[in-house]
# Entry
Amino acid sequence: MGRRASGFTLIEVLVALGIVAIALTAGLQASAALTRNAQRQSDILLAQTCAENELIRLRVARQMPGVGDSSVNCEQGGLLFSVALAVRPTPNPNFLRIDAQVNRDEAPVLRLSTVLGRY
# Structure
């Protein structure tokens, strides 16, 4: 009677390697999603700083801005953002609506709106 060899067959090893490969791929995708989300959160925070800076600049000017569109560049955290300001009239002539759209590389990142009144 011969001794039966102990160990794994080639099929068992290949199945185990396939399972490990699938698990590693899923982990890599989850890690990439977390990295993208962290970058997006960072972009939003920096874009919000740019938009708020422009809105505050309009407030401290102590005069109502002219109705129309304008655009300024803003560098935050080593990244270049474009802030597009849209000043629109409201039914009450003492107030203006101001929309600030922040873009990075032509892609929208954040939009803030406010109302600015006369002092």
